[in-house]
Amino acid sequence: MSEELKQLLDILNLEKIDTNLYRGVTPKTNSKRVFGGQVFAQAMRAAQDTVDSERIVHSQHAYFLRPGDPSVPILYDVDDIRDGGSFTTRRVVASQRGKAIFNTSLSFQILEPGLNHQSEMPDCPGPENLSDDSQRWDKIRKKLDPLAKASSNKYRPRLLPIQLRSVDPINYLNPVARKAEQFVWIKTAGELPKEEDTSLHNAILAYASDYNLMSTALMPHEVSIMDPKLQPASLDHAIWFHDSFRVDEWLLYHMDSQRSSRGRGLSRGTFYSRDGRLVASTIQEGLMRLRDSSKAK
Q1: Which of 33, 136, 188, 288 could form a disulfide with 67 if both were Cys (CB 3.0 to 4.6 A apart)?
Q2: What CA dihedral angle connects 166, 171, 177 and 182, to 10 degrees?
């Protein structure tokens, strides 16, 4: 297990400071804002701690309200809205300095049998012979001018806790217009203890689901996430869990974007296990504002 993965596990282990109240921290970073996937996953961990272990999160829907400050702890206040016969609902508000930066609703369900169908797993090369996106990212950053490098520091988290291997990598330095679709193999940078339960695997996948979605919506426009004129931000994010999986084993992350307009881009993703099961789905709308042609948010 890499040190970065251990660090990710540490930040997902929240401090409980009162009934339904938790504190989370951000690891040291060059970024000027907290990675959205971190807040999304920490909120899930806070809610999970208030729910019986036999009830598993099946969906989470969230809005990003303000940029999080990495230097300040984040408070997660869990509202135990409902405990039903088979479903449980929680609402979580994350705040810093007395102001909400994020809110989310989660639904948990007792596992039960039911009707079963899914879309076919896309046919694409496996991860074994693909290069690592983190290594490619580091090489790209060395070629950036200071302004672009500062922009990449501000908006792009480190990838090291999570391994990503793109089937057809984006050229971030010289983007060309292409179909808004990506295939990325994804897993943790090391094995997790075998006794870890489903809840942690779900939270780590929720964390990782914030990678690459916005860059998918940018692909038809010859604009890179590194472009200093671009003002990107996650606006909302949702994830659904359909089946069990291990996040320390390769999952295929298939992303596409069907629409961008009015300074926003909508992207969706599906996660498939190596045996072809569709285990989770996600969707996100992001701000994709070009500063030289748009009004302030």
Answers
A1: 33
A2: 10
User: Is the CATH code 2.40.160.210 the one for domain 3-111+131-293?
Assistant: yes
Whether 285 and 264 have beta carbons less than 8 Å apart is answered as yes
Rounded Cα distance, 224 and 175, in Å: 6
**What is the C-alpha to C-alpha distance for residues 60 and 237, in angstroms, rounded to an integer?**
8
Q: How far apart are CA 191 and CA 248, in angstroms?
A: 5
User: What residue spans define the domains of the chain?
Assistant: 3-111+131-293
Amino acid type, 260 = S
Best CA proximity match to 165, nearest among 134, 139, 138, 204: 134
* Catalytically annotated residues: 210, 234, 284
pLDDT tens digit sequence for 119-139: 999 999 999 999 998 877 777
For the chain, what is the radius of gyration of the CA atoms? 19
Output b/e per residue, 157-193; b: 16+ Cβ within 10 A: bbbbbbbbbbbebbebeebeeeebebbbbbbbbeebe
